[in-house]
Specification:
Layout (H helix, E strand, L loop, with lengths): L1 H28 L7 E8 L5 E4 L4 E3 L6 E4 L2 E4 L20 E6 L33 E3 L6 E3 L3 E6 L5 E10 L14 E11 L7
Antiparallel strand pairs: 1-11, 2-3, 2-4, 4-5, 6-9, 7-8, 9-10, 10-11
Keywords: Signal
Protein name: HmuY family protein
Pfam family, one: HmuY
Length: about 200
């Protein structure tokens, strides 16, 4: 009887060990989904601030926004309002911050150092405004606003995830040769972005 009980115990132990091993193998084989690059098109910046969520890939009206656009100004949902008296500028309710990286979009595969991330403040935006200082350059002759090549923005989102984006155009439908004098076609952002929803430090 003792021998039979011992054999059953050993069999149970073997089955349990095999089951745990299979679980470990499945965990090892479980791959993290690849981060996809998405293009956001014609995000209007014409009326007040337009709020955008990377996780939802759309314009939102809630407090769950990451960046917002108004004219050539881009703000993040973290820190403080630049203009506390402005009713149009949304309050910062999240923990968003941004790090500006000089590189190609594809080459930015790792998150920058935490110390490089900045939030909006009462005296300065995290993404500087003005020609040559922020994301664009302005041609005083043609009045054309052009994104600065090789400038990538890595964003810590309002809820602590990460995304990166590069601006492609400031004109509706992102034409190759925009007409800056057609005011109805200005203040429309087109940009590439990649959103990292997992707790990893790479894109």
């Amino acid at each position: 009887m003792k021998t039979k009980f011992l054999k059953l115990s050993l069999l149970a132990l073997v089955l349990f060990t095999a089951s745990c091993s299979n679980d470990d193998d499945n965990a090892d084989n479980e791959t993290i989904p690849e981060v996809q690059t998405v293009k956001a098109t014609n995000i209007s910046a014409r009326d007040g601030f337009t709020k955008f969520s990377f996780s939802e890939n759309k314009v939102v009206t809630t407090d769950k926004w990451d960046i917002a656009f108004s004219g050539t100004t881009i703000i993040v949902n973290g820190g403080a309002k630049f203009n506390p008296e402005s009713a149009e500028e949304p309050a910062r309710t999240g923990q968003a911050a941004v790090s500006i990286v000089s590189n190609t979009f594809a080459a930015v595969t790792a998150f920058p150092e935490a110390t490089t991330f900045k939030q909006d403040a009462a005296s300065v935006y995290a993404i500087p405004t003005g020609s040559g200082n922020g994301w664009y350059s302005y041609n005083m002759t043609s009045h054309l606003i052009s994104p600065v090549a090789g400038k990538v923005f890595v964003v810590k989102t309002h809820d602590g995830k990460y995304a990166k984006f590069e601006i492609l155009s400031y004109y509706k439908d992102a034409p190759l040769t925009p007409d800056p004098l057609n005011l109805e076609a200005t203040k429309y952002y087109t940009f590439n972005f990649a959103y990292q929803a997992n707790s990893t430090t790479t894109f």
